[in-house]
Amino acid sequence: MILNKSYNYWLSIMLVITALVPIVITAFELITTEEDSVVFLENYNPNVAILVIAYYIFLLGLGLFWFIKRLISITKLKNEKAKTELMLLKSQVNPHFFFNMLNNLYGLIGKDAERAQELVLKLSDMMRYSIYEGEKDLVALKSEVDYLKNYIELHKMRYHKRIDIDFNIDIEEDYKVMPLLFIILLENAFKHGVERLRDNAYVRINIVTINREVQFSIENNFDNSEKNEVIGIGLKNLKQRLELVYPNRHKLLFSEDETSYKVQLILTKL
Asked: For tag attachment on the chain, is the N or C end more exposed, with fewer CB atoms within 10 Å?
């Protein structure tokens, strides 16, 4: 940082001095001639004129160099800011889910050791994925689907009620997406639907790839007697990440009636 400040200081001094040279030359011509006005370089030796013209070309090149360098510096700064913001947003995904599952695990250890062991394995797989795969720019869509399946299985183990889960998948094996996007919508469906309903809870999930698009839709029912606050931190997080990574390459659509809520996310391949 100190070196950058020193560099900018001396570059500014050099640019000022360089800009003063034409003024000094013009002033010299006016002082040493008796004419009221002069034509720049009119009576100069050709070699001197060539040097002065070369100087102006150098001045133009220096100005262009400085402008391009500043433009690159600003672009890098914006990219670094975007990466930092994206890493911060990724780190906010799923913490409350893991805390809830650990609490459930604590209660299961003394009652059902076998089931607790199964829960630990699935939970460790999810945490491993969040930590290591979540840091990547892109991951296989199939890996994201497996992550969602693990999440659903953990919730089935957690709740003591029947949940109707319909998960339809038709995807290309090599399709890649940004990690940990769909989980936010799945968490939202469980939080505002399954967790608040005593019975007849359902979640319907569809994920397909068509040409260069991946289309994800999720629908859940909810208790309309309770306030349904669907726009929470998770969805705000999702919107920010989509704007950073998929600008003009995504659609996020919401629809709601008296008993059900549906979200559709369409991503165009990067």
From this structure: N
